[in-house]
Write a structure and sequence with these properties.
Distance between the termini: 30 Å
Strand order of the largest sheet: 8-9-12-14-13
Structural class: alpha+beta
Number of strands: 14
Mean pLDDT: 84
Helix content: 25-40%
Number of helices: 9
Oligomer: single chain
Order of helices and strands: HHEEHEHHHEEHEEEEEEHEEEH
Low-confidence stretches: 178-190
Strand content: 15-25%
Length: 346
């Protein structure tokens, strides 16, 4: 996608910094001045600093259910387990109890991610050494099978909110990791378009929230403009916007896209991806309930090296505008900011 990976990696850091304000605080700040050869080297450094900071604050602990044979009663007696012990002439009582422990899924994910990064050939030896040293403080924490992690079940409160950004990165890293069939070795894919798209969306929304709060930026859901009393089905898909901006009586709906190729080829002609156009067209049409023409849509693509990239607009007869724009992530970050500001000047 880019000619200079160094610039892209630097801008990935900036995008993360907007998405997660923690990167502008504590011991993360010095990362901005470092040079990185690849995206996973950057991630390894953030994980190192994040875990180091967390160790100073104390690892998150939560109650974990345990079932053990004991000489004295603790918690609730497991009747079936205790009877089974007696039949085997074991004089211990089996008890169910909760114990405040560091060996919970949050810390297990950190250990698993650190282990994967240590095995990655592109992560520098210096950072691998730091990760190994940090793992000495996790001797009571077990690794976890990354395929069993229920990411949607993770919950954050005031006791573990510092983990949010770290586990977001862990999700990126772990979900890219594949088990190879050759000699049981691990292999890592290139950082995928799917994950960059998630970060791209989060960055654009966070940018407008920080610099243009007057536009009330949000990722709102759009209701279908239908007569619910006369409709006989409730299985319509959810319309989830990436970014929704409100400017007086006008609304701009932005759908962020990150593809290796931002255009499709049909009959030797480059065109906008059909599904993208249908999607933003539907968002605009359904949100503009009274068809006043005061709702516009934008497909915002990360710029690629294609000769033809999305650029321009169409105007519907109802007055709505549909814009096709690109954002060059392979340039100075000030240019990125200026470009984002230009989208809302009108």
């Amino acid at each position: 996608m880019t000619e200079d990976k160094g610039i892209l990696i630097r801008n990935v850091y900036y995008m993360l910094a907007y998405a997660f304000q923690e990167l502008r605080q504590n011991n993360y700040a010095e990362i901005e001045g470092e040079a990185f050869d690849n995206i996973y080297d950057l991630f390894a450094e953030i994980i190192v600093r994040g875990i180091s900071y967390q160790l100073k604050q104390g690892l998150y602990r939560e109650y974990v259910a345990k079932n053990e044979s004991m000489q004295t009663v603790r918690g609730k007696i497991d009747i079936n387990g205790t009877i089974a012990n007696r039949t085997r002439n074991i004089p211990h009582i089996v008890c169910d109890y909760d114990e405040l422990s560091e060996n919970n899924v949050y810390n297990q994910i950190l250990v698993t991610t650190a282990t994967l990064l240590i095995k990655h050939s592109d992560v520098k030896k210096e950072k691998k050494s730091k990760l190994k040293q940090l793992m000495l403080f996790f001797q009571n924490v077990q690794s976890i099978d990354y395929r069993t992690i229920r990411w949607n079940a993770l919950r954050f409160d005031r006791n573990n909110r510092n983990y949010r950004m770290l586990l977001y990165l862990c999700y990126f890293i772990i979900s890219e990791w594949l088990m190879s069939t050759e000699n049981g070795k691990f292999k890592m894919r290139e950082f995928s378009d799917d994950h960059m798209c998630r970060l791209f969306e989060k960055f654009v929304l966070s940018y407008y929230k920080k610099h243009h709060p007057e536009l009330k930026p949000c990722a709102a859901q759009i209701d279908w403009n239908i007569d619910k009393e006369q409709s006989t089905t409730n299985i319509l898909p959810i319309m989830q916007t990436d970014i929704l901006l409100t400017m007086g009586e006008r609304t701009l709906i932005i759908d962020a896209k990150y593809y290796t190729r931002s255009m499709q080829r049909q009959y030797d002609k480059s065109t906008i991806h059909s599904n993208n156009l249908y999607q933003i067209y539907t968002y605009v049409n359904e949100y503009d309930e009274e068809h006043k023409g005061n709702v516009d849509g934008m497909l915002l693509y990360a710029k690629t090296q294609e000769e033809i990239v999305p650029d321009g607009q169409i105007k519907r007869k109802t007055g709505n505008n549909i814009y096709f724009k690109t954002l060059d992530l392979n340039t100075d970050f000030k240019c990125i900011k200026d470009r984002l500001d230009s989208f809302i000047e009108k």
